[in-house]
């Protein structure tokens, strides 16, 4: 096997063909590589699967010296190094999983100019020993992978990334390339600022993933809804199912397994060997369904993931985009399906209320959630909304998302909203009480439950004024009012309270109109054990 060393008088296209075995560059790869090879800084925004790795691997091979790649994905470094070595590229890594001897031998190879690419965990750049090492060797390019980790208000912040500005100060002549698959225009600015990439050229790829069909369904029995999706549309396909909690991961994996699906759990609570085994079975076997928390997936390169299902609401659009982006990397039709309901909104709001960090941090989390909810409740093309979030205009509805395929109906929910909000007002004013969604709905529908009797809620003037709508429809009203900011939840019991703008709906004169999505009919249930 011919060794691909930096001393070869190579140009990028040669390296692409000879070392990586590809015929041509994709999208903006060639431009990016040309810019970095000639010494320029770059900020690259490219969706998952877009081909970011070559953007720094080829400059590392073409320029003299070692390409240093900073990556938070320590667990994947060995795989990345193995993959490069298989191509004849000399690669190594330095991270906390190594013993002293392993580290020493990598350091020596680096100093001797016997490496083309060196992967580095970000925390190592805090160490003087690492900086001394870099001082004594020759670095061809610094690549900062998963660069959004430097954004403090992003969804994936890693404090160690803040240290990376040292690279610019200490090695002003070494070109830097920062790469990420997920960044809004605001995050992009933050990355550029914090990494001192002020002179960098920005390369923003098309974020559209046309082969992914986006669908967001109301949640009633998520595991059975999922099973139906798998049985009807994805029998035998590989896919990822995301759940919020470890317990739900376990339960969902068991449920799928007992219904004949080849499903495995993955979360940070499983021991390391189990996680490694499940991950490698997912990668190597056909048709494995990985049920996981978001601990799973970063850096996973499996081209034929046919579906990604979210059974709980993601915390942000960035997370949603990144997770769904693991589907269909081979370009073939794939499904991004999500089930979402009132309980998700309640749960997420509660998590934000109870989160660490200051008020500003909580407000930021709230904004992330609001954007995610707006995507869930939109009656417009999901893809257009998604791309708009990343600052990209979609000219027309995509024709490959649920709202395009079956346009949702909307209805004037102003009166329903008034009934609901005034029930909350009356409970507060007349009884000094607050309740959660369940009790409010029982009052609106005029149900004589034990709890209604206990609190004598049948005596309220609003009792039964909402009997025209069913439970499910009322839950939909509440969910959408929460998403629109016309209603809020409070405390551990999820009591419903008004917001600053609720009053606009309750005004006697010219009340604010409230448009709501019609709740779709419940889908037929899957045959489950
Ligand atoms: P990213 O890091 O952006 O998620 P990768 O760098 O892992 O994406 O690339 C995704 C896949 O596309 C990989 O399997 C890679 O080998 C392949 N790939 C990248 N560039 C090209 C190219 N120019 N031609 C063919 N395949 C490519
Ligand atoms: Zn669409």
Major sheet details? 7 strands, parallel
The SS-based structural class is alpha/beta
Q: Strands of the largest sheet, in order across it?
A: 3-4-2-5-6-1-7
Please, how many helices? Answer: 21
Radius of gyration: 26 Å
Helix content: 40-55%
Q: What small molecules does the structure contain? A: adenosine-5'-diphosphate, zinc ion
Q: What is the percentage of strand-forming residues?
A: 5-15%
Shape: elongated
* Low-confidence runs of at least 5 consecutive residues: none
Separation, N- and C-terminal Cα atoms: 54 Å
- Count of individual beta strands: 17
Mean pLDDT comes to: 92
Provide an overview of this structure.
It is an enzyme of class 5 (isomerase). The protein is α/β, with parallel strands linked by helices. The chain is 41% helix and 14% strand. It contains 21 helices and 17 strands. Bound molecules: adenosine-5'-diphosphate and zinc ion (ZN). The site of zinc ion (ZN) has 8 residues, from helix 15 and helix 16.
Entry summary:
The protein has helices at residues 12-18, 29-37, 53-62, 74-86, 100-111, 128-136, 165-170, 185-194, 222-233, 246-258, 272-284, 317-324, 342-353, 359-377, 382-389, 402-405, 414-431, 437-445, 450-454, 471-483, 502-506, and strands spanning 42-45, 66-70, 91-94, 117-120, 139-144, 176-180, 201-204, 212-218, 239-242, 263-266, 289-292, 307-310, 334-340, 410-412, 488-490, 495-497, 515-517. With 529 residues, the chain is of the alpha/beta class. This is DNA helicase RecQ.
